[in-house]
Amino acid sequence: MSGLVLKLGPKERVLINGAVIENGDRRSRLSIVTPNANILRLRDAIHPEEVTTPVRRVCYIAQLVLSGDVEKEQASMQLLRGVEQLSQVLTDHDSRELLDCATEAVMDEQFYQALKSLRGLLPREERLMAAAQA
Question: How far apart are CA 38 and CA 15, in angstroms?
């Protein structure tokens, strides 16, 4: 993740290459200069019991790579299959762009970018689920 800048709030936690880092009492910025560092904001983390929808399931797989709980090779195929399944349902232009970005990121082993793109689908999925229940 060359050139990534994290802006952290007071006491915010972030997982970087398997180590949990907690910010102090003031807002701060961290520049991540190590390429391909695995980074996950813990406030954005999806907990296992929250993996209740298709988009959340695919996001969770990407998150497992970033946390170091799953090997990249193992997760890549699952992520690509999940993105393919989502692309069969989410056919609008904006969703397609996010899914294309996620696919490219997985192919380049940029799992943070893949997760970021996939998280962009969460509000859309929530609206579709709410409409289906109404």
Answer: 8
Q: Contact, 110 vs 79, CB < 8 A? A: no
Cα–Cα distance measured from residue 75 to residue 72, given in angstroms and rounded to the nearest whole number: 5
Helix (H) / strand (E) element for 7: namely: strand 4-8
Q: Which two tokens stand for residue 132?
A: 């289906």
Q: How far is CA 118 from the centre of its chain?
A: 6
> DSSP assignment, residue 128?
H
Q: Is 122 exposed, middle or buried (0-12, 13-18, 19+ CB in 10 A)?
A: middle
Distance CA 65, CA 119 (A): 15
Collect all residues with Cβ–Cβ distance below 8 Å to 38 and sequence separation of at least 6. 15, 16, 17, 18, 65, 66, 67, 68, 111, 112
Q: What is the residue-level pLDDT of the chain in tens, covering all 134 positions?
A: 446 788 999 999 999 888 899 999 999 998 888 877 888 889 889 999 999 999 999 999 999 999 888 989 999 999 999 999 999 999 999 999 999 999 999 999 989 899 999 999 999 999 988 888 88
Question: pTM value?
Answer: 0.86
CA angle 27, 30, 34 (to 5 degrees): 165
